[in-house]
Amino acid sequence: MARTRGGDAINRRKGGGGTKGRAGRPRQVYVFTEGEVTEPEYIDIIMKNGVPAKAEETVQHHIANPNAESKLRKPIRLVQEAVRTLRKVEQEAREAGLKPDKDWNWPQVWVLFDRDDHLSIPEARRLARKEGVKVAYSHPCFELWRLLHYQNYTSSFGGVCGNASDLLRRRPGFPQTYGAKVRTVSEAQAKHVLPAQVLTPPEQDAPTARYATAKRYAERISQRRSTDNPDEWDPYTDVWRFVEDGLLLSGY
Question: Where exactly are the structural domains of the chain?
Answer without folding.
Answer: 19-251
